[in-house]
Design a protein that fits this description.
174 residues; alpha/beta; two-stranded antiparallel ribbon; globular; 4 iron, 4 sulfur cluster binding; iron-sulfur
Length: 174
């Protein structure tokens, strides 16, 4: 489940990958994670990073803040030197609990492909409620405690030029 429908997503478009499978509960995530961490400790397997990423937007889980809290506690118990990373499209950072959870992780990696609203709507295809000005203000509110991830593209999509490598897209936010 993802709140964006990016034209470059390696998982495919949202319409192609809709599922009726419910998200795992907070307790299911915690139990599965703790079981795996115990197994890794027993087999003397190391762990360097816990990553929230993959087939969807992690912050859209209704219990994302609590899952982050559980993950940090389990990390501190089993692999205290490991980092916790979240790869997010930043579409839910306006939720105070999500913002706070992201601010607690070691690597808060947030997507911003450009600061041009038209380009974002064409390439990232966010929901109508998405506001680029609000998103950029919230990114600034992390006061440097985030990593901006950008996908630079050059090509044609549905007959339209897609190129955010030009100075008009890059220079305004450097």
């Amino acid at each position: 489940m993802c709140s964006f429908d990016c034209i470059y997503c390696e998982c495919g478009y949202n319409a192609e990958r809709r599922t009726t499978t419910p998200l795992p509960s907070r307790e299911e995530v915690r139990t599965a994670l703790e079981g795996k961490l115990k197994e890794m400790c027993k087999s003397n397997t190391s762990l360097d990073v816990f990553s929230f990423a993959g087939n969807g937007e992690p912050t859209c889980h209704p219990h994302f803040p609590e899952i982050v809290r559980d993950t940090l506690l389990l990390r501190d118990t089993y692999f205290p030197a490991a980092k916790v990373s979240v790869f997010s499209n930043a579409s839910f950072i306006s939720r105070p609990a999500v913002f706070a959870a992201l601010d607690r992780v070691d690597n808060n990696i947030l997507k911003l492909d450009t600061i041009n609203e038209t380009y974002i709507r064409m390439v990232n295809r966010p929901p109508d409620r998405y506001s680029l000005p609000k998103t950029t203000e919230l990114l600034k509110a992390f006061q440097g405690r985030c990593i901006i991830q950008t996908m630079f593209l050059k090509g044609i999509f549905e007959g339209k030029d897609v190129d955010n490598t030009a100075d008009r897209y890059v220079l305004p936010w450097l």
